[in-house]
Design a protein that fits this description.
Elements: E1 2-7, E2 27-28, E3 31-32, H1 33-43, E4 48-53, H2 57-64, E5 73-77, H3 81-94, E6 101-105, E7 109-110, H4 114-124, E8 128-134, E9 142-146, E10 152-157, E11 168-176, H5 192-202, E12 207-212, E13 216-217, H6 222-233, H7 247-253, E14 255-258, E15 264-265, E16 269-276, E17 281-282, E18 287-293, E19 298-299, E20 304-306, E21 309-310, E22 315-316, E23 321-322, E24 327-328, E25 333-334, E26 339-340, E27 345-346, E28 351-352, E29 357-358
Parallel strand pairs: 1-4, 1-6, 4-5, 8-12, 14-16, 15-17, 16-18, 17-19, 18-20, 18-21, 19-22, 20-23, 21-24, 22-25, 23-26, 24-27, 25-28, 26-29
Antiparallel strand pairs: 2-3, 6-11, 7-13, 8-11, 9-10
C-alpha cells in the first residue's frame, strides 16, 4: 500500500514556533507531529510514502531520512508544491502510484482507523473518499453533506457561519484512485477542497465521505495545540508511547508532568499538566499550569507560567510571569521579574530586559 503526506505548508498560525521548524516538526510529547501520522500509516499497512515537502524541507528530510527507522520506504517530492496546491502537488507523484492510495496531512492528530477508511473506500468503489470529523465550529474547514449511503452531495470550503450547512468537516485524510488525478491540470494550482472535490461533484463522480467519531485535531493554533496536549492526559487522544489510564486523576488533583531526557526539576507546582522537552532546568518554587516547554529551556526560581508554549533554547529569569495564551519564540531571553501578558507572542531571538511588562494589543 502507498501513501502521500502533505508536508509543505508554513504553519503561519503557529508563529513564532514555525520560524525555525516547519509545522510537521513541531514537537508533540517530544516527537515531531508528523511522526504520529507516519506511524498510523505504517500500522494501516502502508509500505511506501511520498512526502510532499516545501517550507524548511531539510528539517523533515533529515529527521525521517529514507524511512527505514520507521519501517517504511520514504521518498520526497520537492519543488513548487505550495504553489501547485494540494491536488496539483499530489499529481506530480501519481505516476509512481500503482493502485488505491492514501493522502494525509502531516499535522493532524487523530485516532482514526486508517485501515478501516481504506477498506470502506474499496467497498464503496469510490473514486475518492474523505474522512469526515464532527466539530462544533465548522467555519475553519471544508464541510460536506452526505446522503444515506455516505455519498457526498454537497461540499464547501471554509463557509461563513450563515453558510455552514453541516458540521461534518474534511479531516485532511483521503483515499484516492489514481484516475481521480486525470481531472487535475498539470502544472497549475489545484486544490482538493476548492477545485477537485467540486469538480467531482459537478461531473457526478463517486465521491464518498467516511464519518468517524474517533479523536481528531488539526492543531491549527497554539490553543488547539494545548488542547490536544490536555486531551492526551485525559485519555481522549491515544499516543502509542503513553499510557494515560491513571493520568486523569492527576489533572484533577494536582498536575501531570511529562518530561524528556536529562531534565533537572526542583519539585515545581504543576496544575493541569506540564510537558517538558530534553535538557529542561526548573528552579525552586516554579509554578506551571497547562503549558508545554520545548527542549534546552532554563526556568529560574519563582517563575510562573500559565497556559503557554515556550520554544527551544529559552531562558526565563527569576520571578518572571507568563500569562495564558502566550508563546515564547526560540532562542529568547526573558530577564528577571518581567511580566508577559495574556496572548502575547514573543518573536524568536528576543531579549526582554528586567522588570519589563509586555502587554497584548
Amino acid at each position: 500500500m502507498q501513501a502521500v503526506i502533505l508536508a509543505g505548508g508554513k504553519g503561519t498560525r503557529l508563529l513564532p514556533l514555525t520560524v525555525y521548524r516547519p509545522k510537521p516538526m513541531i514537537p508533540f510529547f517530544n516527537k515531531p507531529m508528523m511522526e504520529y501520522i507516519v506511524n498510523a500509516l505504517v500500522n494501516a499497512g502502508v509500505e511506501e510514502i511520498f512526502v510532499l515537502v516545501g517550507y524548511l524541507k531539510e528539517r523533515i528530510m533529515e529527521y525521517f531520512g529514507d524511512g527505514s527507522d520507521f519501517g517504511v520506504e520514504i521518498h520526497y517530492s520537492n519543488g513548487e508544491n505550495i504553489k501547485l496546491g494540494t491536488a496539483g502537488a499530489t499529481k506530480k507523484v501519481v505516476d509512481k502510484i500503482e493502485d488505491t492510495f492514501i493522502v494525509a496531512s502531516s499535522d493532524v492528530l487523530t485516532n482514526l482507523d486508517i485501515r478501516a477508511l481504506y477498506e470502506y473506500h474499496k467497498k464503496k468503489k469510490a473514486l475518492a473518499t474523505i474522512a469526515l470529523s464532527q466539530v462544533e465550529d465548522p467555519t475553519q474547514y471544508g464541510i460536506a453533506i452526505v446522503d444515506s449511503e455516505n455519498r457526498i452531495i454537497r461540499f464547501k470550503e471554509k463557509p461563513k457561519p450563515e453558510e455552514a450547512f453541516s458540521n461534518l468537516v474534511n479531516a485532511g485524510i483521503y483515499v484516492f484512485e489514481p484516475e481521480a488525478f486525470d481531472l487535475v491540470p498539470k502544472g497549475e494550482n489545484f486544490d482538493f477542497s476548492l477545485n477537485l472535490f467540486p469538480k467531482m461533484l459537478e461531473e457526478k463522480l463517486p465521491l464518498y465521505g467516511f464519518p468517524f467519531k474517533e479523536y481528531w485535531n488539526d492543531v491549527g493554533r497554539p490553543s488547539s495545540y494545548l488542547q490536544a496536549t490536555e486531551d492526551v492526559f485525559l485519555g481522549r487522544l491515544r499516543l502509542p508511547q503513553l499510557r494515560t489510564e491513571s493520568l486523569k486523576g492527576n489533572l484533577e488533583y494536582g498536575g501531570s508532568l511529562y518530561s524528556g531526557r536529562r531534565c533537572q526539576i526542583r519539585n515545581p507546582s504543576i496544575r493541569g499538566f506540564a510537558v517538558l522537552g530534553d535538557n529542561v532546568k526548573i528552579g525552586r518554587n516554579v509554578k506551571i499550569e497547562r503549558s508545554v516547554i520545548f527542549s534546552n529551556v532554563t526556568i529560574e526560581e519563582g517563575a510562573e507560567i500559565y497556559e503557554a508554549i515556550i520554544g527551544e533554547n529559552v531562558y526565563i529569569g527569576k520571578g518572571v510571569i507568563i500569562e495564558s495564551g502566550s508563546v515564547i519564540g526560540d532562542n529568547s531571553v526573558i530577564e528577571d521579574f518581567t511580566k508577559i501578558g495574556a496572548n502575547v507572542k514573543i518573536w524568536t531571538e528576543s531579549r526582554i530586559g528586567k522588570e519589563s511588562i509586555i502587554l497584548p494589543d
